[in-house]
Amino acid sequence: EDSNQLLVYTRSCAEETMLVIANKSDERAEFVLPESLKKEIWQPILMNCSEEAPLPDAPMAPWECRIYARK
Predict the structure, then answer these.
(1) pLDDT recorded at residue 27
(2) DSSP string, 9-24
(3) Predicted pLDDT of residue 2
(4) pTM value?
(5) N or C end of the chain: which has fewer CB within 10 A?
(6) What gap in Å lies between CA 13 and CA 24, rounded to an integer?
(7) Helix, strand, or coil here: 62?
């Protein structure tokens, strides 16, 4: 399902894969990690809102952005 509120993508280079999740709105957003990505272990590397490292499919605050690296 496409969402104008969320921008979600992965980027891979050699052995590294990054997951980027960004809420592009001033409202909270729900995000469900696709099944194909749930098999992976994601380590948070950069976040602009959370003090604690949330799981990739935790609700997103307005304007929140998270970047994860696959372990």
Answers:
(1) 94
(2) EEEEETTEEEEEEEE-
(3) 57
(4) 0.86
(5) N
(6) 25
(7) coil
The count of other CB atoms within 10 Å of the CB of residue 48 is: 11
Q: Which tens digits make up the pLDDT trace of 12-59?
A: 999 999 999 999 999 999 988 999 999 999 999 999 987 777 888 889
Handedness of CA 34, 38, 40, 45 (dihedral sign): positive
Q: Which of 16, 17, 1 is nearest to 56 (CA)?
A: 17
Distance set, CA 66 to CA 13, 38, 70 (Å): 19, 16, 13
Which residues touch 48 (CB under 8 Å, ≥6 apart)? 63, 64, 65, 66
Q: How many Å apart are CA 25 and CA 63, to the nearest integer?
A: 6
Q: Give the position of tokens 């999740």.
A: 21
8 Å CB contact between 67 and 42: no
